[in-house]
Specification:
Mean pLDDT: 93
Strand order of the largest sheet: 30-31-33-32-34-35-36-37
CATH class of one domain: Alpha Beta
Shape: globular
Strand content: 25-35%
Helix content: 10-25%
Number of strands: 37
Oligomer: single chain
Length: 704
């Protein structure tokens, strides 16, 4: 393999000092945005572009990626004032559509084209008022997810004067949290510069356009953690949930009480998330139930904060309870059973009354951080509407009505992968734990010999990766590759024990789980190290980089996407420090930091290592894992690597962590790193591989 001429990268003697410990940081200068850094970055981008685009199959791959890239259904249509609101486009204009039925013909009440900017804009969230007369919309202008609020009169389409001027970090908390009387809404906004990542809760009044800051008992004093506000359907009870990974209502207000002050609510370190029904909070908790149980908490008693007074409705079982959706007087309970979704229906007393006939084995469209994000849509429901996909079928939207006990298709999955096989497997990790993983391949694949294989995994932050549609990676499968989805400890697929088993001092368990999957594939002759690639994003990018360093013998190619790689340096940045605090270590503990440094990829690199081919990708507006993580790691790896394997870095303009990146940019980004992987694995792209991936006719009744 021809050696590449990497851009010259200087080093210095800078030390990073944290909790009394000094760590060498010779590339710290790459964290700045100087002309020197920008020129270095441009040279790295040019090298990556030339290498990837020189692959003869690049053009065909890009066509296939565009065909198979299907957006994840994070937000199903929302009903307000007997009308339906959804993201969509009409006559090549994108924005929010309003219609009489979930996907009926309608009109564009807000078009993103009205934003006069040079870069592609996106809508991280939208929230109609309960009466459907007003619409709050978050607008991101640079791919970062940072957004500002627009307020729209639904009837006229005109903007309201005096919208909040504050910047929101993202759309994770649902943006505007309206009061039932439509008089205003709560929202969480950044304080000062976004880089500091300090947030506060505000209430916006529609009447005069003013904002009032809300002070809550037990609130994170640094303002780093996420807080989601919830108001009961009748407006009486206001709850404040805190905790991205393990949310609980920290504060409570009963507006019928004299004085109506915020009071301390749940103080236990546990998850308690649910909905107010009547005078009770019907909630999922992992307190004394790692896989979750459903309880009823009276909001009218002084003992509401005492878990001993909570009434069990649905006990813990072998399944993992994910979310509650109240529909009329029923509870639709979403669960995991061996990583696959299941939805059962209970009455308000906890008695099982039915089960939703899902359209296949796959995953409900939960949010990434389900504990708090699945509360982002708390309006009362009259029917159960949900997004769903499988490994071989992209996202569709469905409706279930218990009276007819049938599933209706509201939006047909755009892509169905024909002539493919999905298989479930279990590997055995070093300590004997069974680790599930799933494979997706063409039916004609020769399983008697090793095949080009790509593993994707995450394993962290109490976040699950269920068997759902793999997006652009479907192009890799249609071209003869085998896709592997691994479910590592550190995620939430099997409840709190599974999360804690790969968290903080147990973080290495998740990496061992990954190696067990790779070794199981190799031992069963499904692949070999010359045909095996690995990718992951964010925390999964850290996983990929650590795996490259700890077990370079297992991989031919590694792709850390938007990665979190310098865990020590991250402590000097607001969001980075937050990520470390909630999942990895106590930043003030030298012992914790020494443990964390053992899997800080930037610090693990050896100067005499022989590493596999590596492609690092990052976004230049990413506020979560800034591009300097990938830049510093790439510089150190290019200097340290003793093999001739290519080490490439690509930083994309006007691109963040992925959620607000434009589709055209995503197509190019996926094509780049998939082309790199396929080139390393010796794969070809024939004309037959480039097809439309059209959906087959649904077997479930369509919306009438």
């Amino acid at each position: 393999m021809t050696e590449l001429n990497y851009p010259m990268t200087r080093t210095d003697q800078t030390q990073c000092r944290v909790a009394g410990i000094e760590f060498p940081d010779p590339y710290q200068w790459l964290e700045s945005n100087t002309q020197e850094v920008l020129q270095w970055q441009a040279a790295q981008n040019c090298l990556a572009d030339e290498y990837v685009q020189s692959w003869p199959n690049y053009g065909r791959l890009k066509t296939s990626v565009s065909n198979y890239l299907a957006g994840r259904t994070n937000a199903v249509p929302r009903c307000a004032g007997e009308r339906w609101f959804r993201l969509g486009s009409i006559q090549n204009r994108s924005g929010i559509i309003i219609s009489d039925t979930p996907y009926g013909a309608g009109r564009l009440v807000y078009s993103i084209e009205r934003e006069i900017i040079d870069t592609p804009a996106s809508i991280p969230w939208f929230s109609p008022s309960p009466d459907g007369q007003l619409l709050a919309v978050g607008i991101c202008k640079d791919g970062s997810e940072n957004n500002t609020i627009r307020l729209i009169n639904v009837e006229t389409g005109k903007s309201l004067p005096q919208p909040p001027a504050q910047t929101l970090m993202d759309g994770w908390m649902g943006g505007a949290r309206w009061l039932p009387d439509n008089s205003g809404f709560y929202f969480q906004a950044l304080v000062g510069e976004p880089e500091k990542f300090q947030q506060q809760i505000l209430f916006h009044s529609i009447a005069d356009g003013s904002q009032t800051q809300i002070q809550l008992p037990q609130q994170d004093p640094e303002g780093h953690d996420y807080i989601l506000m919830m108001v009961s359907p009748d407006g009486r009870f206001h709850l404040a949930y805190q905790g991205l990974l393990e949310a609980r209502p920290i504060a409570f207000r009963d507006t019928e009480q004299a004085g109506s002050q915020w009071q301390t609510f749940v103080s236990e370190q546990c998850s308690v998330t649910g909905h107010v029904i009547g005078n009770q909070l019907i909630a999922i908790t992992n307190l004394n139930a790692p896989r979750g149980r459903v309880v009823a908490i009276s909001l009218e008693t002084e003992t509401r904060s005492d878990p001993k007074t909570w009434i069990d409705l649905i006990p813990e079982s072998s399944s993992v309870i994910r979310s509650i959706t109240p529909v009329d007087d029923l509870l639709y309970i979403s669960e995991f059973v061996d990583t696959y979704s299941r939805v059962r229906i209970f009455d308000i007393r906890g008695r099982l009354v039915g089960e939703v006939p899902l359209p296949g084995k796959g995953g409900i469209a939960d949010e990434v951080f389900f504990s708090i994000q699945n509360l982002a849509s708390s309006e009362p429901q009259q029917e159960y509407i949900f997004g769903f996909s499988t490994l071989c079928e992209s996202w569709g939207v469905y409706r279930h009505r218990l009276a007819s006990d049938r599933l209706e298709v509201l939006q047909v999955p755009r892509i169905t992968l024909d002539n493919v096989v999905v298989e479930d497997h279990w590997a055995i990790s070093e300590d004997g734990t069974r680790i599930p993983y799933h494979s997706l391949r063409l039916a004609k694949t020769d399983t008697s010999k090793p095949q080009p294989t790509l593993i994707y995994a995450y394993g962290g932050y109490n976040s699950a990766r269920p068997p759902e549609y793999p997006g652009a990676i479907a192009a890799f499968v249609k071209m003869g590759g085998v896709y592997i989805l691994g479910n590592l400890r550190g995620g939430s697929e099997f409840g709190k024990v599974w999360w804690q088993g790969g968290r903080r001092q147990n973080k290495q368990n998740g990496y061992k789980d990954l190696y067990a999957i790779a070794e199981d594939l190799i031992a069963n002759n499904r692949t070999d190290p010359k045909k095996l690639a690995l990718t992951g994003a964010s925390n999964g990018g850290l996983m990929a980089a650590v795996a490259m360093i700890q077990r370079p013998d297992l991989w031919q190619a590694i792709v850390p996407q938007v990665p979190f790689l310098d865990l020590i340096g991250a402590l000097h940045h607001g969001y980075g420090r937050y990520c470390v605090e909630i999942e990895l270590a106590d930043p003030n503990s030298s012992d914790d930091l020494q443990t964390m440094a053992a899997y800080s990829a930037y610090h693990l690199l050896s100067h005499d290592g022989e590493y596999p081919a590596t492609y690092l990708t990052a976004g230049d507006t990413d506020p979560r894992c800034p591009a300097w993580h990938a830049q510093k790691f790439a510089a150190r790896l290019q200097a340290a690597n003793k093999s001739k394997s290519p080490i490439l870095l690509r930083v994309w303009e006007n691109s963040g962590h992925g959620q607000a990146t434009g589709r055209d940019s995503l197509v190019t980004q996926y094509t780049h790193w998939l082309a790199f992987v396929m080139r390393q694995l010796g794969m070809e792209v024939s004309a037959r591989c480039v097809d439309d991936g059209k959906a087959t006719a649904p077997k479930i009744p369509m919306e009438s």
